[in-house]
C-alpha cells in the first residue's frame, strides 16, 4: 500500500486521551491500597490435577480458589513478597492450598459461614486452628470467590513459548481478554474481542466480514490457535462467536515457535470453555438496535455421581437487521464438550462446535470517489449490494485431547483438531466504474459467486516438565505438530458474468433491484489448494539464579503449498511453493528486579508463508525477518494489577504491499508486490487489573511505524498511535448491586494514496469511540445489562479506503439468569 508520509499525519492526542494516559500512571501508583475479585461458587472437594510452577503466593492462592469454587479472603500484606512452591499432582482444592502455604508461616482457617481466610501461624493455636475465625476488622481484605472450576488460570499463558509461564514471566507483550470482560462489553465475535486489546486495530470493510482484517504493530494478524494448536486462516477463526471461549490471549509480536508461522503481528490463542464440577447455567436474552435479537444458554454439570465425567453445552441464536439498508443476519451456534477423568492423573476431553450464518444484502463497500475526483458522502445506511446478494457460511470444529500427569511432575498431552468450513455466496455490489456526481450513472455491479469447502486436520503432541542440572531446577517442553489443509471448489466467472446486465442506471435512486444472476451452467473449471506443515519444536527455561530466567527455543518446519486451477478448454495451471528445514529461533531473558517488577528481552525469527499474489497471479515469497523486544512488567496488589511497557523493533523482507494501481486478479483479490528491508519499531504501554475493591481497569497505548529502506512510511492505512481504555466499578450498596462501566477507543490519522480517478489521497482523521455499560442485579440469579456503543455517534470510515462506514450509535439490553 504505497504512500508518502503526509506533512501532518497525526494530530495531537485529544486532551481526554492525555488525561487518561496520566491516570494510568497514577492508578499504578495508587494500586498499593487494596483489592477485590468478586464472584460466587460453592466449594468443591473432589481431587483435581494440578501443574503449577512456583510463583507469587497471593496470586497462586487466588487462582486455585477461583478454579475450585472456593471463597477465600485475606489481607494482601500477609502474602506480599512471598512465593509459593511448585504444585504437581492430584489434590483436593483445600489440600492444594495447604501445600502452597507450606513454609510460608501462614495457615488456612475456616470461618463459620464456610469461607476461608489466612492467618499467621503463631496467631492460631493448635487447639483452634480448625475453628471459626472472624476476619480482622481493620485489614484491607482480598476476597476471591470461585466463578467456575472449569476456568483456566487467567494469569498464565503458553502461547509464546509453550512453557506454562505467568504473563509477567513471558518475555513478550501479552494481553488477556477474560469471559467477564467479554460479557461486560457485550462482545459477540472473536473479531470484536481481539479488537479491544491493546495495540490491535480492526479494518472493517465488508458486511460479511470476509475481507475484514485485524492488525497488530501495523501488520495483519494471521496466526490463530485453538487451545494452543495452530489453525489456518482459511477457516476464518476471526468470525467465530465469542460465546464458546473462556478467555482469549493475544501475544503481540512474532510467535512462530508455537503459532506455526512466525508472522510479525501477533498470535491469538482461543481458550475454549471447559466443564465445571458443579452445576451451573447461564441463560441470556438480548434485544438491540436495528431489530437485533439473541438468545443464548451456557449449561455445565457433572455427568456422573463422582464428578469424574463432566459436560458443557453452549447454544445461541441471533437474527438482526442493520443500519445498512437491506442487510439481514441469521446465526445459529452450538458448542459441546465432555471431560472424563480416566484416573487420578489422566484427563480426556472431546468436543465440537458448529456455527451456521446467513447474511443477505452483504456488500464490500461503495464508490469512494466521484468521476471528477470529489469524495462521496453517502448516508451511513447506503448499501451497494444487490437484493439478490447473499453469503452463507457454515463452520465446524471437532477436537479431542488426552493429558497425563506423571509422578515426576512431567505432563504429556496430545491434541487433535479438525476444522471444516462451507461457503455459498453470490456477491453483487455497485462499485465498478466511475460515478457521475450529477446523474448517478456510471456504475455497474461487481458480480460473482463463490462455493468452497476448506478443511484442516492438525495434531500436536508434547511433553513438558522440570529437570535438574547444575544443582538447580529448570523446565523444558518438547513437541511435534502437523497440519494438512485442503480447499476445493468450482470456478465461476470472476466479477463479470457473461450475458448479465450489471448496469446500475442511477445509483442515487437505486434500491438494490437488479436482475437475479443465473449461474447454472456457468462453471468454467475447478480449483484445489493444499497446504501441509510438519514441525518439531522445543523450549527451555533455564534458571541460573533465583532472579534470572533464560528461555531458549527453536522450531524446525517443513512447509508446502500446491494449487491447481482447472479451466475447461485451457491447460491446467499448477503452482507449487515449498520450503523445508525452516528454523524459527527464540531467545528470551527475564530478570526479577524485586517481588513486584521484572525486566525482559526477547528475540525471535520471522518466517511466514503468504497467500497474496503478484500481478502475474503468482504467490509472493514468504515473509522473513527478525523481531527484538525489551520491556518491563510489574505485578501490584499481590498480582491483582499488572503493568507492562514493551519496546520493539522488527525487520522484514518480502513484506506484502498492494500495487498502486489496485489491479484486480481473476479471483477478485488485489495484486501485491514485496518490499525488502522494511523496518517496524514502536512501543506499547498497558495497565490491567483491579485498582481497589470493586474497581477494574484496563488501559493501553501503542505506537508503531513501518518504513522501507528509504524511510518512506508503509502501511499508512494503519494508525501510528492508538489508545484503549475500559473500566468498571461495582456499587455493591446500591440496591442488590449496580455495576457501571465505560471506555474509549482512540486512533490516529490513517490515509491511502491512489484512491480516486486522479490518484487522490483518502484521509480518515483521528477519532474516539465511547462505550458505556450499566448492569443491575435484580436478584441473586437475575441481572439486566445495558450497553451503549459509539455513545457520541461519531461518523467515521472503518477502513483506510474510505468506502465503508463504522457502526453508528447503538444500544443493547440483555437479561441474564444465572443458576449456581
From TrEMBL:
<dbReference type="Pfam" id="PF07715">
    <property type="entry name" value="Plug"/>
</dbReference>
<dbReference type="Pfam" id="PF00593">
    <property type="entry name" value="TonB_dep_Rec_b-barrel"/>
</dbReference>
<dbReference type="GO" id="GO:0038023">
    <property type="term" value="F:signaling receptor activity"/>
</dbReference>
<feature type="domain" description="Secretin/TonB short N-terminal">
    <location>
        <begin position="70"/>
        <end position="121"/>
    </location>
</feature>
<keyword id="KW-0406">Ion transport</keyword>
<keyword id="KW-0410">Iron transport</keyword>
<dbReference type="GO" id="GO:0009279">
    <property type="term" value="C:cell outer membrane"/>
</dbReference>
<keyword id="KW-0798">TonB box</keyword>
<dbReference type="InterPro" id="IPR010105">
    <property type="entry name" value="TonB_sidphr_rcpt"/>
</dbReference>
<comment type="similarity">
    <text>Belongs to the TonB-dependent receptor family.</text>
</comment>
<dbReference type="InterPro" id="IPR000531">
    <property type="entry name" value="Beta-barrel_TonB"/>
</dbReference>
<dbReference type="InterPro" id="IPR011662">
    <property type="entry name" value="Secretin/TonB_short_N"/>
</dbReference>
<keyword id="KW-1134">Transmembrane beta strand</keyword>
<keyword id="KW-0998">Cell outer membrane</keyword>
<keyword id="KW-0812">Transmembrane</keyword>
<keyword id="KW-0472">Membrane</keyword>
<keyword id="KW-0732">Signal</keyword>
<keyword id="KW-0813">Transport</keyword>
<dbReference type="Pfam" id="PF07660">
    <property type="entry name" value="STN"/>
</dbReference>
<dbReference type="InterPro" id="IPR036942">
    <property type="entry name" value="Beta-barrel_TonB_sf"/>
</dbReference>
<protein>
    <submittedName>
        <fullName>TonB-dependent siderophore receptor</fullName>
    </submittedName>
</protein>
<keyword id="KW-0408">Iron</keyword>
<feature type="signal peptide">
    <location>
        <begin position="1"/>
        <end position="39"/>
    </location>
</feature>
<dbReference type="InterPro" id="IPR039426">
    <property type="entry name" value="TonB-dep_rcpt-like"/>
</dbReference>
<dbReference type="GO" id="GO:0015344">
    <property type="term" value="F:siderophore uptake transmembrane transporter activity"/>
</dbReference>
<dbReference type="InterPro" id="IPR037066">
    <property type="entry name" value="Plug_dom_sf"/>
</dbReference>
<dbReference type="GO" id="GO:0015891">
    <property type="term" value="P:siderophore transport"/>
</dbReference>
<keyword id="KW-0675">Receptor</keyword>
<dbReference type="InterPro" id="IPR012910">
    <property type="entry name" value="Plug_dom"/>
</dbReference>
Amino acid at each position: 500500500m504505497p504512500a508518502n508520509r503526509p506533512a501532518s499525519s497525526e494530530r495531537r492526542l485529544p486532551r481526554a486521551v492525555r488525561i487518561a494516559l496520566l491516570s494510568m500512571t497514577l492508578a499504578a501508583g495508587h494500586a498499593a491500597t487494596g483489592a477485590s475479585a468478586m464472584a460466587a461458587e460453592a466449594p468443591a472437594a473432589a481431587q483435581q490435577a494440578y501443574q503449577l510452577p512456583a510463583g507469587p503466593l497471593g496470586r497462586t492462592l487466588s487462582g486455585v480458589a477461583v478454579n475450585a469454587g472456593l471463597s477465600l479472603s485475606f489481607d494482601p500484606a500477609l502474602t506480599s513478597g512471598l512465593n509459593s512452591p511448585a504444585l504437581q499432582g492430584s489434590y483436593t482444592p483445600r489440600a492444594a492450598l495447604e501445600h502452597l502455604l507450606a513454609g510460608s508461616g501462614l495457615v488456612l482457617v475456616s470461618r463459620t459461614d464456610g469461607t476461608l481466610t489466612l492467618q499467621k501461624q503463631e496467631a492460631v493455636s493448635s487447639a483452634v486452628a480448625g475453628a471459626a475465625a472472624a476476619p480482622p476488622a481493620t485489614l484491607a481484605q482480598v476476597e476471591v470467590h470461585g466463578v467456575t472450576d472449569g476456568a483456566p488460570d487467567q494469569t498464565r499463558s503458553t502461547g509464546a513459548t509453550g512453557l506454562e509461564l505467568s504473563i509477567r514471566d513471558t518475555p513478550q507483550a501479552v494481553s488477556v481478554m477474560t469471559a467477564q470482560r467479554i460479557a461486560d462489553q457485550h462482545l459477540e465475535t472473536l473479531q470484536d474481542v481481539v479488537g479491544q486489546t491493546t495495540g490491535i486495530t480492526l479494518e472493517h470493510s465488508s458486511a460479511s466480514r470476509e475481507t475484514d482484517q485485524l492488525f497488530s504493530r501495523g501488520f495483519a494478524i494471521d496466526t490463530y490457535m485453538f487451545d494452543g494448536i495452530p489453525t489456518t486462516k482459511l477457516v476464518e477463526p476471526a468470525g467465530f462467536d465469542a460465546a464458546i471461549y473462556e478467555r482469549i490471549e493475544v501475544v503481540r509480536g512474532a510467535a512462530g515457535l508455537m503459532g506455526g508461522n512466525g508472522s510479525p503481528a501477533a498470535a491469538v490463542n482461543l481458550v475454549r470453555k471447559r466443564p465445571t464440577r458443579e452445576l451451573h447455567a447461564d441463560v441470556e436474552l438480548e434485544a438491540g438496535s436495528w431489530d437485533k435479537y439473541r438468545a443464548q444458554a451456557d449449561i455445565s454439570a457433572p455427568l456422573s455421581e463422582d464428578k469424574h465425567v463432566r459436560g458443557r453445552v453452549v447454544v445461541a441464536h441471533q437474527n438482526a437487521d442493520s443500519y445498512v439498508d437491506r442487510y439481514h443476519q441469521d446465526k445459529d451456534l452450538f458448542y459441546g464438550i465432555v471431560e472424563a477423568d480416566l484416573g487420578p492423573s489422566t484427563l480426556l476431553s472431546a468436543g465440537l462446535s458448529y456455527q451456521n450464518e446467513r447474511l443477505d444484502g452483504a456488500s464490500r463497500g461503495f464508490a469512494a470517489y466521484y468521476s471528477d475526483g470529489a469524495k462521496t458522502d453517502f448516508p451511513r445506511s447506503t448499501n451497494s449490494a444487490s437484493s439478490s446478494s447473499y453469503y452463507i457460511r457454515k463452520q465446524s470444529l471437532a477436537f479431542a485431547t488426552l493429558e497425563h500427569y506423571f509422578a515426576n511432575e512431567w505432563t504429556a498431552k496430545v491434541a487433535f483438531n479438525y476444522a471444516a468450513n462451507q461457503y455459498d455466496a453470490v456477491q453483487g455490489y455497485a462499485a465498478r466504474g466511475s460515478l457521475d456526481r450529477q446523474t448517478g450513472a456510471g456504475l455497474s455491479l461487481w458480480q460473482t459467486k463463490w462455493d468452497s469447502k476448506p478443511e484442516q486436520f492438525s495434531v500436536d503432541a508434547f511433553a513438558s516438565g522440570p529437570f535438574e542440572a547444575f544443582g538447580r531446577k529448570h523446565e523444558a517442553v518438547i513437541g511435534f505438530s502437523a497440519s494438512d489443509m485442503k480447499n476445493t471448489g468450482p470456478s465461476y466467472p470472476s466479477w463479470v458474468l457473461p450475458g448479465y446486465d450489471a448496469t446500475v442506471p442511477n445509483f442515487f435512486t437505486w434500491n438494490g433491484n437488479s436482475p437475479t444472476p443465473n449461474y447454472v451452467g456457468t462453471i468454467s473449471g475447478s480449483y484445489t489448494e493444499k497446504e501441509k506443515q510438519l514441525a518439531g519444536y522445543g523450549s527451555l527455561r533455564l534458571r541460573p539464579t533465583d532472579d534470572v530466567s533464560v528461555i531458549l527455543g527453536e522450531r524446525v518446519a517443513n512447509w508446502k503449498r500446491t494449487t491447481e486451477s482447472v479451466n475447461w478448454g485451457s491447460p491446467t495451471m499448477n503452482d507449487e511453493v515449498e520450503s523445508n528445514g525452516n528454523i524459527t529461533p527464540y531467545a528470551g531473558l527475564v530478570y526479577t528486579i524485586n517481588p513486584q517488577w521484572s525486566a525482559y528481552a526477547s528475540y525471535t525469527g520471522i518466517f511466514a508463508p503468504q497467500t497474496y499474489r503478484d500481478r502475474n497471479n503468482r504467490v509472493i515469497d514468504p515473509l522473513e525477518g527478525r523481531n527484538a523486544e525489551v520491556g518491563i512488567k510489574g505485578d501490584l496488589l499481590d498480582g491483582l494489577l499488572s503493568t507492562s511497557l514493551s519496546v520493539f523493533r522488527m525487520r522484514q523482507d518480502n513484506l506484502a504491499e498492494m500495487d498502486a494501481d489496485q489491479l484486480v486478479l481473476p479471483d477478485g483479490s488485489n495484486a501485491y508486490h514485496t518490499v525488502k528491508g522494511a523496518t517496524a519499531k514502536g512501543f506499547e504501554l498497558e495497565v490491567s487489573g483491579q485498582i481497589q475493591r470493586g474497581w477494574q481497569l484496563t488501559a493501553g497505548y501503542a505506537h508503531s511505524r513501518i518504513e522501507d529502506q528509504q524511510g518512506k512510511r508503509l502501511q499508512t492505512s494503519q494508525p501510528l498511535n492508538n489508545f484503549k481504555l475500559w473500566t468498571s466499578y461495582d456499587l455493591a450498596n446500591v440496591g442488590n448491586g449496580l455495576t457501571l462501566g465505560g471506555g474509549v477507543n482512540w486512533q490516529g490519522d490513517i490515509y491511502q494514496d491512489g484512491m480516486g480517478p486522479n490518484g487522490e489521497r483518502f484521509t480518515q482523521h483521528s477519532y474516539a469511540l465511547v462505550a458505556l455499560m450499566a448492569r443491575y442485579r435484580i436478584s441473586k440469579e437475575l441481572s439486566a445489562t445495558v450497553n451503549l456503543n459509539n455513545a457520541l455517534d461519531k461518523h467515521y470510515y472503518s477502513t483506510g479506503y474510505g468506502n465503508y462506514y463504522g457502526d453508528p450509535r447503538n444500544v443493547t439490553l440483555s437479561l441474564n439468569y444465572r443458576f449456581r
